[in-house]
Amino acid sequence: MPYHLDTNICAASMKGVASVQDKMRAHVNELFISAIVLGELYCVALRSQRVEKNLETLTEFVAGVEVVPFDVMAPRSSRTTPGIFSTSKDWH
């Protein structure tokens, strides 16, 4: 089953939260983020005190997920059907 991760889950993984990283490893070929989430992650990295390090971490993270476009029709796609969105409550 595909998992469309939210920004908080991505951030937790990049910060090294073991429970999140364990679940991501268990679903390694089923992880997706939207272009919106990617934009939010870049925004956070670029505003941080460790820009270069955080951009490096983000680049490594993105290599392990598929980034999908997000437009007005995205919520109707099979990758974003109810029950597939993964939020902080689901992964901690």
Describe the structure using short key phrases.
globular; 13% strand; alpha/beta; single chain; 92 residues
Strand fraction band? 5-15%
Strand order within the widest beta sheet: 3-2-1-4
| CATH homologous superfamily grouping | 5'-nuclease
Instruction: Provide the CATH top-level class.
Output: Alpha Beta
Averaged pLDDT, please?
A: 84
What is the distance, rounded to the nearest whole angstrom, between the alpha carbons of the first and last residues?
A: 19 Å
- Count of folded domains: 1
Strand element count: 4
Estimate the global geometry from the Cα principal axes: globular
Radius of gyration, in Å, reads 13 Å
Helix % is 40-55%
How many DSSP helices? 5
CATH topology: Rossmann fold
Structural category is alpha/beta
CATH architecture: 3-Layer(aba) Sandwich
Main β-sheet, in a few words?
Answer: 4 strands, parallel
